[in-house]
Amino acid sequence: MPSDRPPTIDPQAARRWHALPQAQSAWLHDEVGRRMEARLAWIKQAPKAWVHWEPVRGGLKTHALLASRYPDAQCFMVEPLTSNQIIAIESVAKPWWHPGRWKSQTRCLPEAPDGAAQMLWANMALHMTADPQALIGQWHRALAVDGFLMFSCLGPDTLRELRELYQSQGWPEPAHLFTDMHDWGDMLLHAGFAEPVMDMERITLSFDTPQRLLRELRELGRNLNLARSPGLRGRGWLAQLHAAMSQQLAHNAEQGRLTLTFEVIYGHAFKPKPRIRMGPETVLSLDEMRETLRKRENG
């Protein structure tokens, strides 16, 4: 069923991850946001108001691109954490001498107002939530009728090299499993969206050292897998991981660099007008209809 929660995600671990303050946006999130922003050229509808869902994690550099594309639109940045609200507000604040400082149309809120926006922008958020159907429902409520959703997330081919490495070592999975784009399309329809359009691309990143690779992964998220290692691991295991990465991940890489694949899914859908729900059908014969009308006339 589309409403099922991802079976490999630990809800408690997901809550802890979302409660962590974020100092800045990950490089990959900003890059994916830049690519998704270019897709707005296909959409002729310019929103009067739009929601930027958790911009600190999703990509603060992308926010500037969106604000430039829609300079006259009101923006609601949604950040549940107070610390992230401060970072988001500071990132868009104009200097004191700027003539438009006191005319800012950007607000930062812990929740999105219902039906207030014609566009909701959510970059790289869905794959880190334990209840994606509920999150999609929040997005649907935040949009006005005929508004549209733009989102991106990681797909199931992400980290395939690292998964193969962990499997070869007999270790638990390095990450939870990511949802296929066709399942996201089903969830969008289940939540009330219409005309979902999904596509994907693969981005390959290369790294000089295992340490740099792991640092990049920590910026992107955490391993939320229910079957992850139950305890802390020591320096000996970390050295073993570094050695295995250097040996296995560099097999197909140029110049001895480590490579990782990221499958990025892009989604777009509209919020249609609510469907008219018809009551149960009643079938009357012609004689019964005449009798009913006669009773109304005489009654």
Q: Which terms summarize this structure?
A:
299 residues; 7 strands; alpha/beta; seven-stranded mixed β-sheet; globular; 39% helix
Description:
The protein is an alpha/beta fold. Helix content is about 40%, strand content about 20%. It has a 7-stranded mixed sheet with strand order 3-2-1-4-5-7-6, with helices on both faces. Helix 6 links the parallel strand 4 and strand 5. The protein is globular and about 95 Å long.
Helix and strand layout, with pairings?
Blueprint: H1 11-19, H2 27-38, E1 49-53, H3 55-58, H4 60-69, E2 74-78, H5 82-92, E3 106-109, E4 117-123, H6 132-142, E5 143-154, H7 160-169, H8 181-191, E6 194-207, H9 210-220, H10 235-248, E7 258-270, H11 286-298
Parallel strand pairs: 1-2, 1-4, 2-3, 4-5
Antiparallel strand pairs: 5-7, 6-7
How are the strands ordered across the major sheet?
A: 3-2-1-4-5-7-6
The tally of beta strands, per DSSP, is 7
**Number of helical stretches of at least 4 residues:** 11
Q: Whole-number radius of gyration?
A: 24 Å
Which secondary-structure class do the elements indicate?
Answer: alpha/beta
Helix content: 25-40%
**Low-confidence segments:** 96-103
Beta percentage is 15-25%
Q: Give the SSE string.
A: HHEHHEHEEHEHHEHHEH
Mean pLDDT over all positions: 87
Oligomer: single chain
Shape: globular
**How many strands, what sense, and barrel or not for the largest sheet?**
7 strands, mixed
Span of the ends, CA to CA: 51 Å
